[in-house]
Design a protein that fits this description.
With 278 residues, the chain is mostly helical. It has nine helices and two strands; from the N terminus they run H-H-H-H-E-E-H-H-H-H-H. A two-stranded antiparallel sheet has the order 1-2. The longest helix is centred in the N-terminal third of the chain and has 40 residues. It is globular, with a radius of gyration of 25 Å. The two termini are 37 Å apart.
Length: 278
């Protein structure tokens, strides 16, 4: 007979709480804005002390069109890398659940290799290993640095999308596979008509979160010489040769990325609540 109550100490199972993924909040934006205002104020005071130099705000506004061009390249690279990574990552993720052991093992190895490789190392490899131009028929197509960097960024995106697909398919209760099999549906029909439509809802929030991470990672391409926003900011600082511009210019660039990524983070949060599995 088991007593209902006991005076003996009871050791409860130890559980580690799930870590919340990092997301931009409105407080990050306010902190950036306040830091930018303070930096501009300090810079303006220094500019007034040095006669003949334009103010910080005037200088930032002068270079804003050039920064916008660089930022547009960041966004274009993030779109292309996400599209390439998704197009290749989805079949790679489906290959991870293949019934054929060689296919399953090979796709798992490719996924884990690129998922655990540093993004900057992959960028260097793509910049150094890919040719400067390729010949298609009688036409020579150049491969600029930004395109090779986009391919380099798409590799870890591909691996992460592959894991998203595998995890989403595995999260569907196995009884649905058995029910579809009882209706004489093939494995491909079950996957296409039953499993994948449910996976789309589960994959959308983490897919959007991955895109936000990819966007803020695009300044890594400045290390390999791509003329995106980060590189152009450095060029502007070199041409101005004014130390008081250093902090305001980089805070200004941070604010651009925050304004672009914060709505994505909010939309991701809203979709997670809407598609939450109860």
């Amino acid at each position: 007979m088991i007593a209902n109550r006991s005076d003996l100490a009871v050791l409860k199972p130890f559980r580690i709480g799930a870590a919340e993924p990092f997301r931009f909040t409105i407080w990050h934006g306010l902190a950036l804005f306040v830091a930018l205002v303070v930096a501009i104020g300090v810079g303006e005071a220094q500019a007034q002390a040095a006669a003949g130099k334009p103010g910080i705000v005037e200088t930032i506004l002068k270079w804003t069109p050039l920064l916008a061009q660089g930022f547009a390249l960041n966004i274009a690279m993030s779109f292309m890398a996400m599209a390439i990574g998704t197009a290749v990552g989805v079949p790679l993720g489906l290959a991870q659940i293949s019934l054929l052991p060689p296919v399953r093992t090979g796709s798992w190895f490719v996924t884990q290799f690129f998922r655990n490789s540093p993004w900057l190392v992959l960028l260097f490899y793509c910049m150094l290993l890919l040719p400067f131009e390729v010949r298609i028929g009688n036409t020579i197509v150049p491969l600029p640095g930004w395109l090779k960097s986009t391919i380099g960024l798409s590799l870890p995106v591909m691996a992460n999308v592959s894991e998203l697909v595998r995890g989403a398919v595995r999260s569907i209760p196995y009884g649905q596979w058995e029910s579809a099999e009882s209706l004489a549906m093939t494995r491909w029909q079950t996957l296409r008509m039953v499993i994948l439509p449910q996976c789309v809802k589960r994959m959308t929030p983490p897919w959007m979160n991955l895109y936000a991470i990819l966007t803020v990672a695009t300044p890594l391409t400045s290390v390999v010489g791509v003329s995106e926003a980060m590189t152009l900011t450095g060029d502007i600082l070199s041409s101005e040769a004014r130390t008081e511009l250093l902090v305001p210019m980089y805070l200004y660039l941070l604010l651009w990325f925050f304004i672009y990524c914060y709505p994505i983070a909010r939309a991701t949060l809203a979709l997670e609540k809407r598609f939450a599995v109860k």
